[in-house]
Amino acid sequence: LRPRVRPRRPPRRGDRRRDGHRDRRAPHGVLRPQSVEAVVERDGVELRCIVRAGEPTVVLLHGLAGHAGEWSEVIDELDPSVGAIAVDLRAHGRSQPVRPVPLDAASHVTDVVAVLEALSPGPVVLCGQSMGGIVATLTAAAYPDLVDRLVLVESGMEAIDTAELERLAGWLRSWPAVFADTDAAAGFFSMSDLSIAPWTGGLRPTGAGLARRFDPEALVRTITELGARDRWEEWASLRVPATLLVAEQGMIGDDEVERMGRLRPDVDVVVIGSSGHDVHLDRPAVVARHLVAPAS
Length: 296
Known about the structure:
Elements: E1 16-19, E2 36-42, E3 45-52, E4 57-61, H1 72-77, E5 83-87, H2 105-119, E6 124-129, H3 131-142, E7 147-153, H4 162-173, E8 178-179, H5 182-189, H6 193-200, E9 204-206, E10 209-211, H7 216-227, H8 232-237, E11 242-249, H9 254-263, E12 268-276, H10 279-282, H11 284-292
Parallel strand pairs: 1-12, 4-5, 4-6, 6-7, 7-11, 11-12
Antiparallel strand pairs: 2-3, 3-5, 8-10, 9-10
Helix pairs in contact: 2-3, 4-7
């Protein structure tokens, strides 16, 4: 879900399609000139969104400890006619609650529905990476009339086991409250050069350095609520077309992908080469291409 990319076995071909297309890269930025910030208020949270008008509309949900701005390069790669809404999920990014709020799955789904009803002209392509994919799947299963197509980026349906939840909790709690500078943050994240700007872009500049925006305990609760149980029932019940983008060096195992395919034989599975778990940061143009048209 976030901290590190672990190598995975070479993918079996089967019904997966490999996309090794090289992409070009635009300069990173949180808010592009063609985008605006919108706020949707719900349940004591101001949900902050980056919005670009257009149709069809793609709605983008980040992963654990992420933020809406990390989708900026994917949005840049979309055709200018395509709309986009990137959401800071509750307790993430700039969507910090002013009081204690629920962090369960139902609250996240209701947040997304509120954003769709407030900002989208009609049914959307709903995309989620990692933890955001769980929220996207649950939303599409419960509100199929609001979703034209579901795109999952390195997101599976298996429950996260206790040991992994404890590891994630330790990682979240290990974040310094303030990083001295970008180099200090990059060293902590141990990210590739391509991922440093999106990750540091989620930090808040202060006189003392770059501060994390989130409360670690809120994110521990969030991933426990969202990830402690499997989502196979919701996945099997989906009534919208779905695409699964899997990283060549990602964190979704072959067995999990194969089970997703058995339960939903119509799902299109694409393995994206030269990428890790944060596929949207490593290969933004490839991800953008699969958002606007199903792979075939």
